[in-house]
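Readers of this paper often ask what the protein records in our data store actually look like. This encoding replaces a full spatial description with a residue-level series of whole-number codes. For reference, a complete record is included directly beneath this paragraph.
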Amino acid sequence: MKFPVVTVTLVVAALGYVFWNQTQEPSAPVAPADFTNLAANPAERSAVVDLAVTQIPELCEQAAGKGSDAQARAECIKLAESRTSSCRRMVYDLFPDLVASDAVFRDISITMMNCLVPQSGVVQP
């Protein structure tokens, strides 16, 4: 029986990559200030989507209302988090990879937020 050199090499390479990846510095969190001058400094679509995902607790607080209980907000957050991957796919299909204008940034943000936490049709003054 031959020694499985190729299999062992692939497993060692995979373990090496995992170890290397764990030692890397985590990327900086996305902040709204990163999107101030999109014409001169375009952002990636994924960064805009990540920013919208970080806003889930605030969106749920607005959707549930200020005086609502914590259980309603927790359910909203749970539902929004379960929608994250399908909302990402939808936005990735609809918008370009690079966001170079405020209008595209706004459209991606609003589309993503409406997908994560659908609002009722009631307009409040």
Q: What stands out?
A: The beta strands are 43-44, 98-99.
